[in-house]
Design brief:
The complex is a heterodimer of chains A (471) and B (198). Chain A is of the alpha/beta class and 471 residues long. Chain A folds into 2 domains: 2-41 and 281-444, no CATH class; 54-274, LarA, N-terminal domain (Rossmann fold, 3-Layer(aba) Sandwich). Helix content of chain A is 35%, strand content 21%. In chain A, the strands form 5 sheets. In chain A, strands 5-4-3-8-9-10 form a 6-stranded mixed sheet, with helices on both faces. A 5-stranded parallel sheet of chain A has the order 16-15-14-11-17. The longest helix of chain A has 29 residues, at 435-463. Chain B folds into 2 domains: 2-70, Alpha-Beta Plaits, CATH 3.30.70; 79-164, Orthogonal Bundle (Arc Repressor Mutant, subunit A), CATH 1.10.10.1100. The chains are: A alpha/beta (471), B alpha+beta (198).
Chain lengths: 471, 198
């Protein structure tokens, strides 16, 4: 079951991150273990990085065949809304392929030629332009492509609980298509309560709405913000349909499209709780390791076996168990306030004995990582980016720098005393890791599988009003 | 509190005066005067947003000759007043409101009590909003509201006054939607009795 390390997706060149000199998968002695070798019943992929992209185009066409597009008239304006994270998954190509297929099918079915692609950024002013250029989106989409960001003019959205603000240009059309993905990003925020709706309080939203969702509600009650925005007359009057890349830890398992977003959301929820539930539980069972951030974009969102680093770092909590009031440590710290002063924003999974940062973009707050665990940054160029990073002004006061990945990993192993390495490099289908960790995962998987199947999966479903007997 | 180690500099040859930097600046440090950006270095919080936003690459962060702390000294503000503002905002005084800069609710509340009238002035006084610029916004607007300061509208979309929080959800709505834990999360996020013990 233990095999050679697999090639990770490539890193897109960007002003926001340095280029890794070497990927961790190519360190001497690195190995991999297949996700479906660990859990044979995890859904089989139709596409994995490096595969045939035609499978995505076909799956998108098949999925859209059952979608009603009669509301879109030839003279209407239509926004296809896409989000930056999709371009980071498996190198972004499958997401681009889905977007292209949506464009083709909608034009064919409706005769509409006023389709515009809106590329939503996380926070950087140049993000969308880089994506548009890298994937040559203007060439395919007849030049009707532009970026949107949370700094732009807002549009008030009246909801059941008051006014919230979207980005005006996300909604400046007669119709919009929600072109999204369901990978397990930020489970600790959304708790699998309307994962499929998250973009309405993030990618398509102003700064203020993003903040209200993430920080002024709890990470269970925040799900109501998503519902309130999506159910608002303003959004409902413009929503045409949704089209999703659907994932399991093994890779892309389907393209899913529907006029009823809540139906997609239900399917996403069931699949996530079972398949990602197992992988998350397995990674949470790791007793000790050195975690390597190895390329992609912002470090929280880089995958290993389909699970994001941010999920691993918060793994001491079960984010799917809704009786657990807070899955994100910052809220947990608030809850425990009376027990002592809050010295940090996060509490990091204690199994992470050290972090090696081979490549990870600055720009999102992660400075608690070096404050709480030994952190080695690879390369002076990357270290300098963190010195200048306003989202992490203290980061390099706590981290150390190594000239090479080899040196960084060697140092981490020496100070921690563990030979268990796990690489977050964007991989689905496999976990690149050291042989010792691969064996650990193989040994632990059967018990995790039993626990999830017999106890946790039914409990998680019931907590969300889903009868396990129906699944 | 933020240690500012860099400052924004303008290359006037490249600057076209398109005001993208002025709009991006969270602390009001940049004004375009006679079609050229001008940086008030005393207000610059080294966020780098101007550098990122400028299409002409006319702005860049350069090391400060003398790094400086941006912080609001709350020692001359009555702690009881800070505590009550925080209570109304459902925040603990020693709770982070800006994770990037490590700014506590007490410092942001003190800056508002000492005269910050909008998010821009608050950023210049404390450094908040100079990191990711996203997650702190809601809590800061809650503090303004709690202090009785009506945040004026921003003419160029720099902010929208949105102090909404889970405590604003009507009880009836919470009861109709039990699957969202709206009532329960109020107690997870804030407890009056905990604040009373401080």
């Amino acid at each position: 079951m233990i095999k050679q390390a697999v090639q990770p997706p490539e890193c897109m060149e960007s002003v926001y991150g340095s280029t890794p000199l070497m990927r961790a998968a190519y360190l001497p002695g690195m190995a991999a273990v297949g996700v479906r070798d660990l859990f044979p019943d995890i859904k089989q992929e139709i596409y994995l990085h490096g595969g045939n992209l035609a499978a995505i185009g076909k799956a998108t066409g098949d999925a859209l065949a059952g979608v009603d597009m009669s509301m879109i008239k030839p003279g209407d304006t239509v926004n296809i809304l896409c989000s930056e994270h999709g371009f980071s998954i498996m190198g972004g190509e499958p997401y681009v392929e889905m977007l292209k297929a949506i464009w083709r099918v909608v034009r064919e079915r409706t005769g509409n030629e006023n389709l515009r692609l809106r590329v939503a950024a996380y926070r950087g002013y140049r993000e969308a332009d880089e994506v548009i250029e890298h994937y040559r989106l203007k060439e395919f989409f007849d030049g009707k492509v532009s970026g949107i960001g949370p700094w732009e003019k807002g549009v008030p959205i009246e909801t059941e609980i008051g006014t919230l603000y979207g980005v005006a240009r996300a909604y400046d059309a007669d119709w919009f298509i929600h072109a999204y993905y369901d990978d397990p990003r930020e489970i600790y925020f959304h708790r699998m309560i309307h994962r499929a709706l998250k973009a309405f309080a993030m990618s398509y939203a102003r700064y203020e709405t993003r903040s209200v969702y993430h920080m002024s509600f709890g990470n269970r009650s925040g799900g109501f913000i998503l519902k309130a925005i999506f159910d608002s007359p303003f959004v409902q009057e413009r929503f045409a349909f949704a089209c999703f890349l659907r994932f399991s830890p093994s890779g892309i398992i389907a393209v899913d499209a529907d006029n009823d977003l809540y139906q997609i959301d239900r399917r996403v929820t069931i699949n996530h709780l079972r398949d990602f539930g197992k992988m998350r539980e397995l990674l949470a069972a790791i007793d000790e390791c050195v975690a390597i951030w190895d390329g992609g974009r912002w470090g929280y969102y880089i995958h290993a076996g389909g699970v994001c680093f941010g999920v691993f770092i918060n793994a001491k909590y079960d984010p799917f168990d809704l009786t657990n009031p807070a899955a994100l440590s910052v809220f947990d710290a608030v809850d425990k306030y009376s027990g002592g002063p809050m010295l940090t924003v996060m509490q990091i999974n204690p199994a992470i004995k050290a972090v090696v940062m081979n490549q990870s973009w600055p720009g999102i707050v992660i400075q608690d990582v070096p404050m709480l665990t030994p952190t080695i940054v690879v390369g002076r160029e990357q270290a300098e980016m963190y010195v200048r990073d306003s989202a992490n002004p203290f980061f390099m006061d706590f981290a150390v720098t190594a000239e090479t990945l080899d040196a960084a990993v060697g140092f981490a192993q020496k100070v921690t005393g563990t030979d268990k390495l796990i690489v977050f490099d964007g991989s689905f289908g496999n976990v690149n890791c050291s042989p010792s960790l691969a064996q650990y995962l193989i040994d632990a998987a059967p018990e995790v599988n039993r626990r999830v199947e017999d106890k946790l999966f039914p409990m998680w479903l019931k907590q969300r009003g889903i009868d396990p007997a129906e699944v | 509190m933020k240690m500012v180690k860099f400052v924004s500099r303008v290359d006037s040859e490249k600057c076209t005066g398109d005001k993208r930097c002025e709009k991006a600046c969270p602390s009001g440090a940049i004004k375009v005067v006679e079609k050229k950006a001008v940086v008030d270095e005393g207000k610059c919080v080294a966020c780098g947003k101007c550098e990122d936003a400028c299409r002409e690459r006319a702005l860049s962060l350069v090391p400060c000759p003398q790094p400086r702390f941006v912080m609001c000294d709350s020692s001359d503000v009555d702690p009881a007043v800070i505590k009550e503002v925080c209570r109304k905002a459902h925040l603990y005084p020693e709770q982070f409101v800006c994770a990037c800069t490590g700014t506590l609710a007490a410092e942001a509340a003190a800056a508002i009590i000492k005269g910050a009238k909008d998010p821009e002035e608050l950023a210049a006084m404390t450094g908040v909003r100079s990191g990711c610029g996203i997650y702190c916004t809601g809590a800061l607007l809650r503090l303004f509201k709690a202090a009785g300061v009506k945040v004026p509208p921003s003419e160029d979309d720099k902010w929208y006054d949105l102090p909404l929080s889970v405590w604003d959800v009507p009880q009836k709505v919470a009861e109709e939607h039990p699957g969202y834990y709206l009532e329960e999360d109020k107690r997870v996020l804030f407890k009056d009795e905990v604040l009373d013990q401080l």
